């Protein structure tokens, strides 16, 4: 799936496809809040297996009644290659490795206080996340993230002018406050970049 397909999915360009993806993902996450991941995977597997077995038996009965020789109903899918290529695995593992190394380097920089302002920002973020963690568990945050991913882009697209105006106002206020704090606290002035 390329970036354009993801954007089309999140912007609801094809309502049926987006609805199916969003509904299935939300149903899966809500199922995980009620049952363990092992149970959810087992139920999904049983449901799929029930459908395919019933379809296979149905087609077999139809072939027997009509005395036709169509063969296995899933033959075209059984003949397809489903293995991952080495190139694809190397490509994605290289991307993951570079992102992991970048993250480790950034965490080292923040935890070893290379830049005091960035370390303080990170500390404030961690402090805020302690309160978020007290109210929500990880699965709830993933569910909220999924809902936001499928609603925020379309809301922004429809109300872009108003949202941009208010975001600019907030950014100006934040810059003013950060500038005042940096001017008053020694050692917090950012280096010229």
From TrEMBL:
- Cellular component per GO, a single term: neuron projection
Question: Which positions make up the signal peptide?
Answer: none
* GO annotation terms (biological process): brain development; endoplasmic reticulum tubular network formation; neuron differentiation
Q: Which UniProt keywords apply?
A: Endoplasmic reticulum, Membrane, Transmembrane, Transmembrane helix
Give TM segment ranges: 20-49, 135-156
| Reticulon domain residues | 6-193
Extract the PANTHER family matched here. Answer: RETICULON-4, RETICULON-LIKE PROTEIN
Name it: Reticulon
Organism encoding this protein: Oryzias sinensis
């Amino acid at each position: 799936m390329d970036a354009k397909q993801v954007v089309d999915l999140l912007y609801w360009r094809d309502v049926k496809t987006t609805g199916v993806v969003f509904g299935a993902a939300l149903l899966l996450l809500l199922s995980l809040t009620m049952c363990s991941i092992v149970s959810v995977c087992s139920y999904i597997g049983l449901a799929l297996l029930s459908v395919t077995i019933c379809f296979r038996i149905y087609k077999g009965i139809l072939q027997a009644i009509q005395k036709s020789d169509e063969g296995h109903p899933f033959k075209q899918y059984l003949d397809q290659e489903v293995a991952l290529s080495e190139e694809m695995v190397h490509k994605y593992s290289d991307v993951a490795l570079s992102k992991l190394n970048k993250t480790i380097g950034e965490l080292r920089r923040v935890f070893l206080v290379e830049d005091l302002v960035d370390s303080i920002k990170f500390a404030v973020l961690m402090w805020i996340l302690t309160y978020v963690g007290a109210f929500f568990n990880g699965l709830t945050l993933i569910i909220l993230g999924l809902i936001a991913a499928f609603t925020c882009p379309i809301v922004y697209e429809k109300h872009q002018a108003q949202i941009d105006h208010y975001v600019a106002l907030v950014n100006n206020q934040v810059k003013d406050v950060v500038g005042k704090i940096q001017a008053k606290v020694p050692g917090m002035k950012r280096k010229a970049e």
